[in-house]
Amino acid sequence: MAGRAAEALRELDATGKLTAAIPELEAGRGFAQPELHYYDVLEHNLAAVAAVDAVLGSGEDNLELREAIAWIDVEASLDREIGGVPLAALVRLAALLHDVAKPATAVFEGGRLRFPRHGPRGAELMGERLPALGFAPEATDLVTRLIRYHLRPRELIRDGAATDRAVRRFVADLDGHVLPLMLVNLADGMATRGPGYTRENYRRHCTFVNYVAARAWAVADEGEVPLVTGDDLIAELDLAGGRLLGAVLTSVRRAQLEGAVTTRHEALALARSVLETLKAAE
Hints:
Elements (H helix, E strand, L loop, with lengths): L4 H10 L2 H5 L19 H15 L4 H9 L5 H5 L2 E2 L2 E2 H11 L4 H4 L1 E3 L2 E3 L3 H15 L4 H12 L15 H10 L4 H16 L5 H22 L9 H7 L6 H15 L6 H18 L1
Antiparallel strand pairs: 1-2, 3-4
Helix pairs in contact: 1-3, 3-6, 3-11, 4-12, 6-9, 6-11, 8-9, 10-12, 11-12, 12-14, 14-15
């Protein structure tokens, strides 16, 4: 059933059971979105669940994501329950509900339709709805965090690379659930353009997932203090945020944990070497 969650939800919607259980979704039916979006709000939410099915399935989307985040054990990360519900199922639920508050927050600003604070408002609405549906506090907390912060990752690169302090705050706000959020963020992007979403769009988004996950892992690790931080690499190597920063930071941190580098000088030397290798391969 997990691999066909979107199909199952569409079947529920056809019988009226989906919006009977979550009435807030009904307002999205036929609610048109700005030009970048291919679907109305409800179809977009359902398409996001289909995207999660694809990303966690056995096809090309899954393989490409795994290649981009090869250092993460996806199965181990998702193979657990929160509040008695499989984590992967909660990720799909968050994908279904991530834009639930768009109709309620829609305003015209400068001649354009916008949805200010639809993430936080959606989290508030589902913070009431999910317990009524029988979800435990732990599951409700996770899903509402994913709804509230589903657009937050882009803030990490809006004005250049985020500081380690900003990334640490991002991780804390998510209570450490960075990979689930990035899966929702990825699914949101895939569902936005619909058929217009290309393999190149997906490749770039997977690279972004890797960057955010690497930055989060580096600053949130509670073990040995990192020899160099993301801020150090930005300053010392004149390296902007993005795929290269995430890849270099991950390589250096791995080397430190394995004992291959033991001083800041060695860590920076390795970072320069890794950066040169990555640039040469582009």
